[in-house]
């Protein structure tokens, strides 16, 4: 939660500055994709690029935790319930991704869109992880 508040306060600070948005060049078909080899301080991100990268990393960490809990739960279930959980999880992933695309669409074309999407993924994923953890507690 603290990280999310930092992200939003940084976003508000950045949006209040009257400076043009940073543009990141894309790759061309004949050139290999290049990634920045920069490590950001995610405890105190100072640029929109850092905020975007840090929210993406937080989202990926939440997804790793979700997958750990999901694997734990699925290993405890009998086949009929296991199939239902698999179907529910696939539907949930589709919902999460589509819902977060919707949230991001409000900022389409803006430098903040990426962090909005990643933040949505992280929050939604954490809620699902809690739900799966509750199933673990109540299932034999």
Characterize the quaternary organization of these chains: single chain
What's the tally of helices? 4
> How does the helix and strand content classify structurally?
mainly alpha
CATH topology of the domain at 52-138: Substrate Binding Domain Of Dnak, Chain:A, Domain 2
CATH architectural arrangement of the domain at 52-138: Up-down Bundle
Q: What is the CATH class designation of the domain at 52-138? A: Mainly Alpha
- The level of helicity is 55-70%
Q: Compute the gyration radius: what is it?
A: 18 Å
Proportion of residues in β-strands: under 5%
Mean pLDDT: 80
What distance lies between the first and last C-alpha atoms, to the nearest angstrom? 32 Å
Shape: elongated
Largest sheet: none
Show unreliable segments.
Answer: 1-29
Number of strands: 0
SSE string, helix = H, strand = E?
HHHH
Describe the structure.
This protein has 140 residues and is an all-alpha fold. It has a domain of 87 residues: Substrate Binding Domain Of Dnak, Chain:A, Domain 2 (Up-down Bundle). The protein contains four helices and no strands. Helix 2 runs parallel beside helix 4 and helix 3 runs antiparallel to helix 4. The chain is elongated. The two termini are 32 Å apart.
Task: Please render the helix and strand layout as text.
Elements: H1 2-16, H2 48-74, H3 79-105, H4 113-138
Produce a short descriptive summary.
This protein has 140 residues and is mainly α.
